[in-house]
Amino acid sequence: PRFSGAIGSALLNENVVSSTSSVLVRKELFVKVGGFNRRLRSCDDWDLWIRLAHLTTFGFLKEFLVSHYIDGEDRLSFNPRYRAHDLLYMYEKYVKVSGTARGRANIFFKLGHAFYLWNRSRTAAVFFTKSFALHPGKYKALVYLLLCKLPGSSTRNLYYLKRLRSYFRRAFLFKDLTWQKARYGTGH
């Protein structure tokens, strides 16, 4: 767990709470904030966590109590159109006003990714550019910006990007492994 206690400011930058399957909320708090926003299909949990953070603190257990299985990419949260719509909502409602530059860079990157998967490369390029401008260390935004300029479908370009990333991981395994351990505390 990266965050515990009053996590409202962290939530304004990104969804730092795990899957909805692993969260317990008191019913009276859930009712008080109005439950899930039914207009959202992808970021409804993130929206709920922000509203709950105004009323209570969050606690995390280090112990794994839930096993979460994702079957393919047929979930609503993976639909790029819904994701783009909901991320725009989250940006306008929370991040634009209260988020940090890094938080705005994160959401711009996610918006760029959603529009890219939706085959809206021009719109995606705008968001990747904004992300990189706010956080120049986010090289992933620069790579995706270059992908937007390539001809062909986003699916094909992502396939080649994954193959290239796999090649570099194998070629620089020890450097990559050390970097990941330092950053994530794990080797994968």
What can be said about this structure in brief?
The protein is 59% helix and 0% strand. The chain has nine helices and no strands. Helix 4 (80-98) runs antiparallel to helix 5, helix 5 (101-117) packs antiparallel against helix 6 (121-134) and helix 6 (121-134) runs antiparallel to helix 7.
Word description of this protein:
With 188 residues, the chain is mainly α. The chain has nine helices and no strands. The chain has helices at residues 8-11, 27-32, 44-53, 80-98, 101-117, 121-134, 139-149, 154-171, 173-184. The longest helix is centred in the middle third of the chain and has 19 residues, at 80-98. It starts with 7 loop residues before the first helix and ends with a helix.
Task: Report the major sheet.
Answer: none
What's the Cα radius of gyration? 18 Å
Low-confidence stretches: 176-188
Assign a percent range to the helix content.
55-70%
Number of E-type strands? 0
Categorize the overall geometry.
globular
Q: Which structural class do you get from the secondary structure elements? A: mainly alpha
Strand content: under 5%
